[in-house]
Amino acid sequence: xxxxxxxxxxxxxxxxxxxxxxxxxxxxxxxxxxxxxxxxxxxxxxxxxxxxxxxxxxxxxxxxxxxxxxxxxxxxxxxxxxxxxxxxxxxxxxxxxxxxxxxxxxxxxxxxxxxxxxxxxxxxxxxxxxx
Amino acid sequence: xxxxxxxxxxxxxxxxxxxxxxxxxxxxxxxxxxxxxxxxxxxxxxxxxxxxxxxxxxxxxxxxxxxxxxxxxxxxxxxxxxxxxxxxxxxxxxxxxxxxxxxxxxxxxxxxxxxxxxxxxxxxxxxxxxx
Lengths: 131, 131
What we know:
The structure is a homodimer. Chain A has 1 helix and 12 strands. By secondary structure, chain A is mainly β. In chain A, a hairpin with a 2-residue loop joins strand 7 and strand 8 (75-80). Mean pLDDT of chain A is 93; it is low at 126-131.
């Protein structure tokens, strides 16, 4: 059994194309012997966002702190602490912090995500108002 | 994509042998099309606990609110909000609320847990001081 305060887990900048102001901690994963899925915690700075992207595996997300939106295709859906999001495989999605505080959420993925193709989607649906 | 406030998800008493003061919400699962794993939220009343038990699948746990312990075999390890726990397959474990407030945590399991045998362990290691 592993028990750990998550703030003591190493935090790294998310370097993926399209990410801005994002950091990630891998709380539980294959390195711990987790056989099926991994738990990560993301922190997004005010104004920051994850890439607008899709991939052939799911996310299960729980919002811990802050406020923002999840971009669902070309729509924006508001998020606040205590909200849960299921992003199905191949859903185009993006998490954006629209608040003044850090937005913090858990995002879990299957171990089978490793090596799967991630497709970065253009931002125009959100940033040019072409919904 | 599913987005939902978790307090709006149905909460049910945990009826399993050895559980006391526990309620569960299934936030994401196979009913949502989740292909690999399920996210549940547990609430344990002050003095309450999950069964002391083991099973051949893992838990990935994140403590949201409150304070308690996780029984790890015959040892107790303190827990507070922001702690993460990886319970490996076949680890004997129990979550106990030792605080004055409701203890709330996420507990994720693989879909393959369905139908797997759960073994309830005796409480003597904790309650009779025979550590």
